[in-house]
Design brief:
The structure is a homodimer of 332-residue chains. With 332 residues, chain A is an alpha/beta fold. In chain A, 27% of the residues lie in helices and 26% in strands. Chain A starts with a strand and ends with a strand. Chain A contains 9 helices and 15 strands. At the A-B interface, helix 7 and strand 13 of A face helix 7 and strand 13 of B. Strand 13 of chain A pairs antiparallel with strand 13 of chain B.
């Protein structure tokens, strides 16, 4: 009955000693409650923001509190009419090996022959994020050119495969030869640019997208955003999904102003979005993502940490860019 | 049978001596053609771009060529089955007192008791521009807060009245007490900020919009855009319609980068758009704009130049910000 709590607030780069294992018993369920045993915990970039003191994220998690996070698991006891032992569920129960929560906080996972851990990724928050960025912002047509940054990451992995499934020309951007090779071989990117090996990123995007870019799924912001905007076509769309590069204060400070003018002249659409704002789309998104996976057109690559004791190091690796695909902690 | 041609290309500020009057006879119409006598010529900011060497606008108008522009006029001779003498029409025929053009280049204006000159403004390009910015980008709901820059200009005038008609709280931004008074008294803005008298524009927007801004109809860009973005709510929208301030190289170069990150976090939508891209919406837009005017909820204020000889000075005044409402040249 273990859990992971925040031991201290990180200063700069996140390190494993910011976390500590604690005992957190899961009581017998009361009326309307369900007890679950966790099978997989999802590690996601938003967790860095939740423990930081960045004003965007409101009050930070208190020291000593259990870390927030989504778990995929199995019902062991139920005092809720909709759940019975053995049911597979997912819910935001935190970094816990077991938990007792209200039934309304859980969503049942349909039985199937795809790996259960995929419900942390391609069928979880990252999959919904990618799907909603396509549906609400980009909506690229067959033959259009799509660029995805963090192409080997949890969201980028799905964004690339969705582009391929739509018949787009899909270009990835990732850091390092290993990530680029993975993105091209497993996620169906037509081409992947290694930004660490590209002295002029805008020129590299231009070479990969000679007809220009129609939709940019942006997971990083900053100088990568600048390089893609320099190649964005008339009526181009940008899904502003993540801004990881800003955490390191990279970037070219004078690019923004020019691009606002270009957005006007070239009729661009730049849009932030969230999964939470689009809850009405979740059922359709999940159904489509699962159908794609059943058809063999959507796969999850994952980096697995074995056990809660390694979860803190796993999150530190994720934020530092040392993880490929979906970061998952195996609990059982 | 006079017209106005480009005499020389402007260097910096536009001046009247860049234009010259020329004779330009309108020949008798051949099969499919129509001869019209102009009644009003519309002066619009895009004309500055058409004669400039800015690379966004492609090849500039050659020296000696007749200036482009939209005219509202009356058919005098017709060799086209759809038109007869006396019909009222509008078309992009240039700065000409009379012209012979293909019938397909003209649109008939329905007879009515509203002033004919309004077809250069609230029922013309500026009206369509404002309507499409609302329909395609902003779509503000009753009670939401809308900000419009260039509030006393040809587009801003309509944008303010559309906001009022939708039951929004509408805040204008304009330069100088006279424009502010006009916007508030004639265009129904709830409040108008004089940016020339506001030492801290972001603070002035905050004071006028204590609940934040939901939709910004941006006609100017640069530091005004920055000040409004500083007050934009979660899920805020920005219609990027014009960037007049950039012509004077004002602005704060480091604001753009920060705002991209905010757009991500706060789920903003920043979108350029054009009337031309949305031709399918023109009939609905025109019908709604005319119905609003018939109901007394949409008026045109105009600054009228008498005769083609003053058209060049009129355009120079428009670009320099010396015009209130729609700039129109009376031809007949």
């Amino acid at each position: 009955m273990r859990a992971v709590a925040l031991a201290k607030r990180p200063k700069g780069a996140l390190t494993a000693d910011c976390f500590t294992l604690v005992e957190a018993p899961a009581a017998a369920p009361q009326e309307g409650e369900v007890r679950i045993r966790g099978r997989y915990l999802s590690l996601d970039p938003y967790m860095r923001g939740a423990i930081d003191e960045h004003p965007l994220h409101g009050a930070p998690l208190p020291i000593g509190a259990v870390m927030p996070g989504r778990v995929v698991g199995e019902v062991t006891d139920s005092a809720h009419p909709d759940f019975k032992p053995g049911d597979l569920v997912r819910g935001d129960v935190g970094w816990r090996a077991a938990a007792t929560v209200k039934g309304g906080a859980l969503v049942k996972i349909p039985a199937g022959d795809l790996p259960l851990s995929w419900h942390t990724g391609v069928f979880g928050g990252p999959g919904l994020t990618a799907w909603i960025g396509y549906a609400v912002v980009g909506d690229p047509k067959p033959g259009e050119t799509v660029v995805v940054s963090s192409a080997a990451g949890g969201v980028g992995m799905v964004a690339g495969q969705l582009g391929r499934a739509r018949g787009c020309h899909v270009i990835g951007i990732a850091g390092g030869a290993a990530k680029c090779a993975l993105a091209q071989s497993r996620f169906g990117f037509d081409e992947v640019i290694d930004y660490k090996a590209a002295p002029d990123l805008a020129a590299a995007v231009k070479a990969a997208a000679p007809r220009g870019v129609d939709f940019y799924f942006d997971n990083v912001g900053e100088r990568t955003l600048d390089a893609v905007l320099a190649n964005l076509n008339v009526r181009g769309r940008v899904a502003l999904c993540g801004h990881i590069a800003a955490y390191n204060s990279l970037g070219s400070p004078d690019v923004g102003k020019r691009h606002y003018r270009d957005a006007n002249s070239f009729r661009w659409r730049l849009q932030g979005f969230s999964v939470r704002d689009n809850a009405d789309l979740w059922p359709r998104a999940t159904a489509e993502l699962m159908a794609l996976a059943q058809a063999g057109k959507l796969v999850q690559h994952e980096t697995v940490v074995d056990g809660l004791a390694g979860a803190g190091q796993g999150l530190a690796d994720l934020i530092a860019g040392r993880v490929t695909g979906k970061a998952v902690v195996k609990l059982a």
